[in-house]
Every structure is written in C-alpha cells, then in structure tokens.
Amino acid sequence: MSTGSTTEAPGVLRSSSGTSRHWMISIASVIGGLIVWQLAAAFVIRDPVLLPTPIETVRVLIRYLTTPYPSAGETLIGHALISLGRVIGGFAIGSFIGIAIGAMMAGFRSFRAVVDPFIEITRPLPPLAFVPVLIVWFGIGEAPKIILIAAGVVPVMAISTAAGLDGIPGEMLNCARCLGASEWYTMIHVRIRAAMPQIITGMRLSMGLSWTSIVAVEMIAATAGLGFVILQAGQFLDTGLIFAGILIIALLGLGLDACLRRLQRHLDPTMKP
C-alpha cells in the first residue's frame, strides 16, 4: 500500500503543478496583452476613434449593459442573449444532423459513397455565401439565421464523427461482438462513446464557426444581436462600443468552449488542460 502511494504521489504532484503553471502562463499572457493594448492606445495611437483603451472599452460596456442601443432597441445584455440563442439553436440542430450523418457514413459504405461528395463540396464553401438565397426563401426572420449556422456546422460534425468512429480499434469491436452485442448496441455504446472526444473536438471547431456566421449575418439581415450592434456602432464611429461588442462575443465564446473542454476532459481523462 505504502509503495503504491509513494509511486503515485510524484505523478499527481507533477500533474497539479503542470495545470497550475498552464493557468499562470495563460493569465500572464492576457494581462500582458491588455498592458500592450493600453500603452498602444494611450501613447502610440492616441485617438479613441481608431483604438480605444481597455479602460474606455469597459466603461462603454458597463454603460450599455443597462442603456438600450439604439435608443429604442435592446441593452447589450439583450443583444447578447439574442445572438446566444441563435448560436445555440443553430449549433444544436447542426450538431445533431452532422453526428447522425457521420455515424451513418462510418456504418454504411454505400451511404458514405452517396453523401461524401456533397460533404466535400459544401465544406469549403463559406456559409455567408448562402445568405442572399436564404433571405429570398425565408425572409429576414430567425429561420435563415438558424439554418445558416446549422449549414456550417453539419459538414464539420459529419467529418469529425466519421473520423472518430473509423479510428476505433478493431479489437474493441471484436470484443463487443464476442460478448453478444448487436451492431446497433455496438454503435451506440462502444463506437460513439469511444469517439466522443474527437466528436467534441469537432463541436468546439463548429462553435467558433457558429459565432463567425451569426455575427456576419446579423450585420446583413438583423435588427438585433451583437453583429447588428457592431455594425451600427461602426457607422457612427463609436469604436468603444465596437470593441465592447467584440469583448462580449469573446467572453461568450470562451464560456461555451470551456463547457465543451470540461466535457471532453470528463470523457477523456488523459487530455491535457
């Protein structure tokens, strides 16, 4: 007992030390970036229209958290919730469809032969290329925004799911079959569970793409949302509000990515922080 504890302790300490060092470096990097930003804005650019300081950006952010923008519109909190709802809705729909397609691609060669050309054709296309068509088909309501996000997520999730399922060792599948597991049971409880870390990696990539898509489409066809706020602020040269909107997008994106990373570490304990 004592030997095992003595053997494991250094590894646990090294892991804890490595995690602490990682966070310290990350925090120091952020602080360093803010200092460089402050110095550049205050002493090099010296024009708040071109580059506001971090302090000015936070001040504008705090003001519009409770003040509507435009005057008859939503507060920044309201705009952020609208964009977040669109992102989560489109992301969830696209992830569900993409995972289902990827699973079928990994399970059925004939299905992969039919679907793979369409995945490869649509994957390099920017989702924004479909905005005019979606507006013609569905108007400027919520439907085109949700569809646009989902359309960008589906190819990424299909490819990552299929790749994760294809990478499952054959020995694992043979063991499941020897124990009497059906193909359906093997797919759900063995292959998909083993492929979840790679599937979540695809979800993390898709989440970033979702934010890019929604901000861009809100600049084109929306009367609310963070993309709309950034566009309106740009037209009035309110650079502080532009940076405040960008800051909110960054914080929301980091928060959602942190949730996915936590889930990924839970499913794959060997993953580094």
What's the structural blueprint in terms of helices and strands?
Elements: H1 2-45, H2 54-64, H3 76-107, H4 109-122, H5 131-138, H6 142-166, H7 170-178, H8 183-220, H9 226-235, H10 239-267
Helix pairs in contact: 2-10, 3-4, 3-6, 3-8, 5-6, 6-8, 7-8, 8-9, 8-10, 9-10
Task: Characterize the structure shown.
Helix 3 runs parallel beside helix 6, helix 5 packs across helix 6 and helix 8 runs antiparallel to helix 10. The chain contains ten helices and no strands. The N terminus is likely disordered. With 273 residues, it is mainly α. It has two domains: 46 residues; 202 residues, MetI-like fold (Orthogonal Bundle), CATH 1.10.3720.
Whole-number total of structural domains: 2
Q: Helicity level, as a percent range?
A: over 70%
Give the DSSP E fraction (strand runs of 2 or more residues).
Answer: under 5%
Major beta sheet summary = none
What is the fold named in CATH at topology level of the largest domain? Answer: MetI-like fold
Number of helices: 10
Low-confidence runs (pLDDT<50, min 5 residues)? Answer: 1-9
Mean pLDDT metric: 83
* CATH superfamily heading of the largest domain: MetI-like
The sequence of SSEs as H and E is HHHHHHHHHH
Q: How many strand segments?
A: 0
Approximate shape? globular
The CATH architecture name of the largest domain reads Orthogonal Bundle
Gyration radius, to the nearest Å? Answer: 23 Å
Q: Compute the separation of the termini in Å.
A: 29 Å
